[in-house]
């Protein structure tokens, strides 16, 4: 066997040489910017500057004393857990439905996946138009069936803006959950259900004792992955509301952007970015922990 | 325990007929084997008995009840699947307990039953394991134990040994049969392996193309095949068939021996045989060649025990023979066996 053979010096060299281009690119694209941001976070960099005096952890101290940071942190959690929870529920439900056999199942699957394929800009512009308080089709529909008698300010009221953003986010990304769960549903051997039927399990018992245990690991991993991705999400929120009204939808990535390119406080923006990165690292660590455990179980 | 009766059952799928007009009675406590090549409808028939498929026509009775349209759970049957269908996330204990749990049995009863079943199949020390930590044979026994805990009326087994290696298959076959003798439950066993069928079955049902070709004890099926399909499907190597006009002659390779090895116990039919190749199999030698002489030239095989001293001469015509009592006759057109008495009478008439 090749893996039992002691590696020759030349083999090692070849392996490193083969890895070098990827390692170099990875460092260039991920390592260098991260380090640059970290360095910037230690500096007092203002408008028009790319460099400034080193001030140690002063920017971080500012971040943790800044109310806007806590507002953004809270908004981020609302956005992440609101949208991920709904995506997971909707995704699981639809995956279960699409796993049943019915006429036009193929077409139904394609339609469900459509939102995931629409470019974000196109989707957001369409949704903004639909959610417009005066000319939007959503308000028109709600008013015509009498749920509300005056237009709702979907994107321009502090109370509804986050709801609208979450709604569009869920619409855009739940197909990912559907694909992931449908995949695992289809890998469950039919004999398991047949054996359970013969043993007298009801439909609910079959779901509870067979389907759910199969789906659970993928469900959890998908939820974590969606959490990480939603945490990072910038464009869908920014294009919908720009973080407004009155910071109602300003999440951490948007706060970083606003600090950097609207307030031109690069040092402080970098410090927020680093804190965000730290939170994400914790999430990633949990994700890899679960992946490892799932692999060990296989 | 129960009798199973299958009345004129057919299953027609959109594009083909899987089972066509099958009539069959499985006696109480009997071990019945459904045997046939893949696609012969044996599994579909079993699934209809289980209630996993509905027959297109016909009726199925289990015990005194008409079960044709009953839900699988209401038939009081147990089934062992080819890949065992164990639940990978449950321990062996919970797998065996599953049928009781879903029926809401109380904890004490579940525990008693699981331990009783595990004891019966020799799994007592593995109850905490997960299926993936067990060998094929242990998984198969787990599936068997799971099917036991409910005291089913009928056992359905769908090729339960085919995922085991040859050696394990042999010992499992014996265990399975001993086990059935002990619990005495009516069992219906599907396989494509004739050795399994011969070794296990009280009776064998040979199926082909969705229909039953023959039902009988292993001896009946081997010694008196109902048609040329059964004659060639059973036995390895298969029965030699020589077409002589309207009648096809059939004789088993082990009955096709050099003329010299027949003492004068009964009349024999002499056949000219030209051996082309010899295969040594340890206990036996297979002689491949062509029969000729007063028969049309046809490929045939002779099987001679290694204990019989005979040195075959290749590519030379020698006289072989078959005892008349071992010679079978089939109608060439239909392939159906011609009953021994009928052929006897024909011969008597011909001889005056």
Automatic annotation (TrEMBL), chain A:
GO terms for cellular component: plasma membrane. GO terms for biological process: transmembrane transport. Residues 73-287 form the ABC transmembrane type-1 domain. CDD domains: TM_PBP2. SUPFAM superfamilies: MetI-like. It is found in: Cell membrane. The keyword Oxidoreductase does not apply. The chain crosses the membrane at residues 13-39, 77-98, 110-128, 134-153, 165-188, 208-229, 236-258, 270-290. Pfam families: BPD_transp_1. Belongs to the binding-protein-dependent transport system permease family. This is Carbohydrate ABC transporter membrane protein 1 (CUT1 family). It comes from Shinella granuli.
From TrEMBL, chain B:
It comes from the Bacteria. Residues 4-234 form the ABC transporter domain. One of its GO terms (biological process) is carbohydrate transport. The keyword Membrane applies. SUPFAM superfamilies: MOP-like, P-loop containing nucleoside triphosphate hydrolases. Its main location: membrane. Keywords: ATP-binding, Cell membrane, Membrane, Nucleotide-binding, Translocase, Transport. Coiled coil: none annotated. GO terms for cellular component: ATP-binding cassette (ABC) transporter complex, substrate-binding subunit-containing. It is found in: Cell inner membrane. It holds the Pfam family ABC_tran. The keyword Cell membrane applies. InterPro entries: AAA+_ATPase, ABC_transporter-like_ATP-bd, ABC_transpr_MalK-like, ABC_transpr_MalK/UgpC-like, Mo/tungstate-bd_C_term_dom, P-loop_NTPase. Gene3D superfamilies: 2.40.50.100, P-loop containing nucleotide triphosphate hydrolases. It is a peripheral membrane protein. GO terms for molecular function: ABC-type transporter activity; ATP binding; ATP hydrolysis activity. Belongs to the ABC transporter superfamily. This is Carbohydrate ABC transporter ATP-binding protein (CUT1 family). It comes from Shinella granuli.
């Amino acid at each position: 066997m090749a893996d039992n053979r002691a590696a020759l010096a030349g083999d090692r060299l070849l392996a490193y040489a083969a890895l070098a281009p990827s390692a170099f690119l990875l460092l260039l694209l991920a390592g260098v910017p991260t380090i640059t941001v970290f360095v910037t976070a230690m500096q007092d960099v203002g408008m028009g500057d790319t460099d400034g005096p080193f001030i140690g952890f002063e920017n971080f101290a500012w971040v943790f004393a800044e109310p806007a940071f806590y507002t953004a942190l809270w908004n981020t959690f609302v956005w992440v857990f609101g949208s991920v929870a709904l995506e997971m529920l909707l995704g699981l439900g639809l995956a279960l439905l699409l796993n049943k056999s019915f006429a036009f199942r193929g077409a139904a699957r394609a339609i469900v996946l459509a939102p995931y394929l629409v470019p974000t800009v196109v989707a957001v512009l369409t949704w903004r138009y639909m959610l417009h308080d005066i000319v939007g089709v959503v308000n028109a529909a709600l008013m015509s069936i009498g749920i509300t008698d005056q237009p709702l300010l979907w994107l321009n009221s502090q109370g509804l803006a986050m709801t609208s953003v979450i709604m569009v986010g869920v619409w855009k990304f739940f197909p990912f959950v559907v694909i992931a769960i449908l995949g695992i549903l289809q890998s469950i051997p039919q004999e398991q259900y047949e054996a359970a039927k013969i043993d007298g399990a009801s439909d609910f018992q079959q779901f509870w004792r067979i389907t759910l245990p199969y789906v659970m690991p993928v469900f959890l991993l998908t939820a974590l992955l969606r959490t990480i991705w939603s945490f990072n999400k910038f464009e869908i929120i920014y294009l919908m509301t720009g973080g407004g009204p009155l910071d109602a939808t300003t999440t951490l990535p948007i706060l970083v952007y606003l600090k950097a390119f609207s307030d031109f406080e690069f040092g402080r923006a970098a410090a927020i970015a680093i804190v965000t990165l730290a939170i994400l690292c914790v999430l990633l660590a949990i994700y890899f922990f679960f992946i490892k455990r799932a692999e060990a179980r296989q | 325990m129960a009798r199973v009766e299958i009345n004129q059952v057919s299953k027609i799928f959109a594009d083909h007929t899987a089972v066509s007009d099958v009539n069959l009675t499985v006696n109480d406590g009997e071990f019945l084997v459904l045997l046939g090549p893949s696609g012969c409808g044996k599994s579909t028939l079993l699934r209809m008995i289980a209630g996993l498929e509905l027959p297109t026509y016909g009726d199925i009775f289990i015990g005194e009840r008409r079960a044709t349209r009953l839900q699988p759970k209401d038939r009081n049957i147990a089934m062992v699947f080819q890949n065992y269908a164990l639940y990978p996330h449950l321990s062996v204990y919970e797998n065996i307990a599953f049928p009781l749990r879903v029926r809401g049995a109380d904890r004490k009863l579940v525990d008693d039953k699981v331990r009783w079943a595990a004891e019966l199949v020799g799994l007592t020390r593995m109850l905490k394991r997960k299926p993936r930590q067990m060998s094929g044979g242990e998984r198969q026994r787990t599936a068997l134990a799971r099917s036991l805990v409910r005291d089913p009326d009928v056992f359905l087994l769908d090729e339960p040994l085919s995922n085991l290696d040859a050696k394990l298959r042999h010992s499992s076959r014996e265990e399975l049969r001993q086990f059935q003798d002990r619990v005495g439950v009516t069992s219906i066993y599907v396989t494509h392996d004739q050795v399994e069928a011969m070794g296990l079955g009280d009776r064998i049902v040979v199926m082909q193309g969705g229909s039953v070709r023959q039902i009988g004890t292993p001896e009946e099926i081997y010694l008196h095949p109902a048609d040329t399909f059964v004659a060639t499907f059973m036995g390895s190597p298969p029965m030699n068939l020589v077409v002589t006009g309207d009648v096809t002659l059939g004789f088993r390779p082990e009955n096709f021996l050099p003329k010299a090895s027949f003492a004068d116990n009964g009349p024999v039919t002499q056949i000219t045989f030209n051996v082309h190749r010899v295969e040594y199999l340890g206990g036996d030698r297979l002689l491949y060649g062509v029969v000729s002489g007063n028969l049309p030239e046809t490929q045939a095989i002779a099987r001679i025990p290694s204990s019989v001293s005979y040195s075959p001469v290749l590519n030379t015509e020698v006289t072989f023979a078959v005892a008349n009592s071992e010679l079978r006759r089939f109608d060439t057109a239909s392939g159906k066996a011609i009953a021994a008495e009928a052929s006897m009478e024909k011969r008597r008439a011909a001889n005056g």
